Amino acid sequence: MNSIDYARENKQKHLDELIDWLRIPSISTDMAYKPEVQKAADWLVDSMKTAGLENIQLIESPFDLHPLVYADWLHAGEDKPTVLIYGHFDVQPPDPLELWDSPPFEPEVRDNNLYARGSSDDKGQTFIHVKAVEALLRTEGKLPVNVKFICEGEEESGGRTLSDFLPKNKELLKADVALVSDTGILSADQPSITYGLRGIYYDYIDVTGPSIDLHSGMFGGGIDNPLNVLGHIIAGLKDLDGNVLIPGFYDDVRELSAEERALLAQLPFDEAGWLAHTGASRVWGESDYTLVERLGARPTLDVHGIIGGYTGEGGKTVLPSTVHCKVSMRLVPDQDPEKIKKQFRDHVLSMAPDTVTIKFGDDTHGSIPSITDYSIPPMKAAKKAYTAGFGKEPVFMREGGSIPVVAEFQEHLGLETVLMGFGLPTDALHSPNENFHLPNFYRGIETSIHFLTEYGKA
Ligand code: BES
Ligand code: MN
Ligand code: MN
């Protein structure tokens, strides 16, 4: 039996195993779930053993956050390249729970999709490579390339453990290319390779006015209201056409070349289907750019949450003392999160009247945007692999999400990353009813096998 046959014969077993992993609520953003993230790491260690990987290590976080998992198989020979595979086993919180059709940590298959938090982002996609390695080792007794895995439990919380580990373990992680499955493809019958990711800068704003909540009849008109001020600040961050109003925000944005715009214009992007999935009435944004450009190659700013004032039943006439807001900016090359942080904060402070005090977040995080040259040899291997796995040549695209480790691999290990995604725009990442399209899971395992095989020939 060859490795592809092995993957095909063991579909049900692989699905059952993934379901087992998805039952663990490894929510990294909430420290109450720390033991669960640990369990998800232990589970991965066991499954790597089963797959035949070696030197498996569970690496505790020096910051008392979440552990890393390392494993390798290095017997392909000195002349063969080494692939460093990355994935994350932490997940986003499942809220709002009432909007799930089945509980987020009780995985369920419906219409060929596996519904569970983490099914697509990123346990399902990480598991693909563990199973590809298992298929190759069980049937051929060896891998066509040397393989190292480094997996983390802090991707969704912008954690520090991996960022600290990378520069200190350059030799351990030395490789020729990084392979990351934590993105998507255009559609189930049109595979694509992502060569660009946006970065992000995330911040919190606390606006405080009076030291206690006040009766709005007795104090309204005489004491400024922090919630009104916050509304004013938010309105000054971005206009109704989608232009960010922070001075200097666009200074370092690398403009798209005519060539790249032409390439992106050719993408078979299903705009109607994409819109229908959102339930919004129409697409929106900067009018000088196409939708595909706006989503992958233009920066933006969004408010994610506002806490303030009375939100219970009925009316309550109150001036709140303190209100809070969460906001992030998606960044593109060559914007720098540190520089954006300063510009953002200066702009917010410049809009705030002296009736309030402003406090920003303490542990704000950023991720540097990245672009990979798509003519390098492992990209060619990835192209062949998708063609074999999906029966169709992949197209190249940029995506709007952020994966902090990609720029860190570039910076600390000098590694380019092949983003071999298997998600779909309808996977509902971070939303209720997150799901992984099962044909993509199975094709993903085959595509990974093809990639390791093709890259071994290069
Ligand atoms: N897998 C996503 C990133 C992603 C999603 C990239 C879809 C491309 C397409 C990742 O787990 C994620 O959610 N990242 C966060 C980054 C953060 C918390 C620093 C994001 O993009 O919001
Ligand atoms: Mn992810
Ligand atoms: Mn995510």
Description:
The structure is a single chain. This protein folds into 2 domains: 3-197 and 369-457, Zn peptidases (Aminopeptidase, 3-Layer(aba) Sandwich), CATH 3.40.630; 199-253 and 299-367, Alpha-Beta Plaits, CATH 3.30.70. The longest helix is centred in the last third of the chain and has 20 residues, at 438-457. The protein contains 14 helices and 19 strands. Helix 4 crosses helix 14. It starts with a helix and ends with a helix. Helix content is 34%, strand content 20%. By secondary structure, it is of the alpha+beta class. The strands form 5 sheets. A 6-stranded mixed sheet has the order 1-2-6-3-7-18, sandwiched between helices. Strands 9, 11, 13, 14 and 15 form a 5-stranded antiparallel sheet that branches. The protein has a 3-stranded antiparallel sheet with strand order 4-5-19. Strand 1 and strand 2 form a beta hairpin. It is globular and about 80 Å long.
The CATH architecture of the largest domain comes to 3-Layer(aba) Sandwich
Averaging pLDDT over every residue, what do you get? 97
Largest sheet, order of strands side by side?
1-2-6-3-7-18
Work out the strand percent.
15-25%
- Specify the structural class: alpha+beta
Q: Roughly how many Å apart are the termini?
A: 24 Å
- Roughly what percent helix? 25-40%
